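Example: Protein ABHD18.
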Amino acid sequence: MVSVNLGVLHYVLDHIYGAFLHRTKLSTPFFSRGWGGSKLDLLERMVKQLFPEAAAQNWPPNLVQPIWKTVWETKNARLREGVFRTPCDEQLINALPPESHNARVAFLAPKFVRPQKMACVVHLAGTGDHTFERRLWLGGPLLKQNIATMVLESPFYGHRRPGLQRGAKLLCVSDLLLLGRATIEEARSLLHWLEVEAGFGKMGICGLSMGGVHAAMVGSLHPTPIATLPFLAPHSAVGAFCEGILKYATAWEALREDAAQKAGMTLEEVRERLRSVLSLTDVTRFQFPKILGLSYLWLLQMMAIFLDTLSWSFKEHGQAQK
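Written out as structure tokens, the predicted fold is:
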């Protein structure tokens, strides 16, 4: 009898698929326009401000005022969508594409429960998650637990995607850092709005994959304790782009040519440079989230509910496909 390690099998198949898809030019690569020039220098400085040793690490969130419209409502629940100006400072706004200046958010909540009696979880997008639907799908069953769901559309995704960008394939390395920094700012501001304006007593932040990385950073940087749940998240983008499947989807030659305009670099030096830049996304460089007392107990409860919901969603999706 031959036993098969499914983890190894999936890893091998993923890499074969990734190599075939991207080396045959069937898909646009990441970073096809290079490093991002002066934007990358700016973003490297601004991301470093998030680390514990930086004086600006505990800056308070900016309060946003979303303009809401009701999408639908039932007897027990209501879905609203809101638009607000990104709370990023002027330097970041100028670096963002115009399409990303206004943020979009969906808010699914029970209708007849006071905010003080329920909780709300902000769901952040994983790589390639351009719409609200997947995360709202997870939020549906949470309504039974009196947990509202807020879904943020990331910069560079969905309606906020630049016109020249194809899918999730960011044009420059600087765009990845910019996406992360803006997402962190916007998520912290939404959590602040939930507490100050909406009156929620319990709040959480969660995300899948890239969204989990951003969720961990938000949990670390938020001034008050919130439940923080990164799900299937790497510790940084280094693994994905330098070691994982996305290394086949990275425009290494474009990065080398862009770097060569300043100083000649070999392909191996380009890989090391990208590894160095993406190390700024390493969540282990951040402080542990401020989870104390009841927040910790609620985190455990939220994890159990989230996993049950994920299991339910996969089951429902499987039945729908039959």
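DSSP finds ten helices and seven strands in the chain.
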